[in-house]
Amino acid sequence: MPLPNAYTQYNNSKVLTASPAELTLMLYEGAIKFCNIAEITIEQKDIAKAHTNIVKTQRIIDYLRQTLDMKYQVAQDFERIYVYLSKRLVEANIKKDKEILEEVNTHLRSVRDTWKEVMRINREKGII
């Protein structure tokens, strides 16, 4: 059992030492992971597991939305994206529709990739 414990300790350390930008990236990665699991479990007809993972994705999106600083214009753009993704996730969950999840995942990957690029640029400028 030492290996799972070491992995848990590593993950806890990773979260505790991450910058706000890195934490946001981890949230995007988590949302993508849970959305992927939901897609697979819909294919496998495991409705309960699909539901659980869609809800996990929704919670991450809701958290990202709640933490937006609305004094910035870009936050309003992210607000619109998150509202749209939330609505689509509700639809996907009701219908257990893999295609909707694929669409959501495409958007999540795009936002994540943009976030990574912003982080890279800011790192080069010495901002983060």
Detail the topology: elements first, then pairings.
Elements: H1 2-16, H2 20-43, H3 47-66, H4 73-95, H5 98-125
Explain this structure.
This protein is mainly α. It has one domain (20-125): Four Helix Bundle (Hemerythrin (Met), subunit A). Helix content is 86%, strand content 0%. The protein has five helices and no strands. The longest helix has 28 residues, at 98-125. The protein is globular. The relative contact order is 0.13. The mean pLDDT is 93.
Which descriptors would you attach to this protein?
mainly alpha; 86% helix; single chain; globular; Four Helix Bundle (Hemerythrin (Met), subunit A); 5 helices; 128 residues
N- and C-termini, Cα separation: 37 Å
The CATH architecture: Up-down Bundle
Helicity, in percent? Answer: over 70%
Task: Give the CATH topology.
Answer: Four Helix Bundle (Hemerythrin (Met), subunit A)
- CATH uppermost class: Mainly Alpha
Number of distinct beta strands: 0
Q: Which regions are unreliable across 5 or more consecutive residues at pLDDT < 50?
A: none
Order of secondary-structure elements: HHHHH
Q: Summarize model confidence as the mean pLDDT.
A: 93
Number of helical regions? 5
CATH H-level homologous superfamily name: Flagellar protein FliS
How many structural domains in the coordinates?
1
User: C-alpha Rg, in Å?
Assistant: 16 Å
Structural class: mainly alpha
Q: What can be said about the biggest beta sheet?
A: none
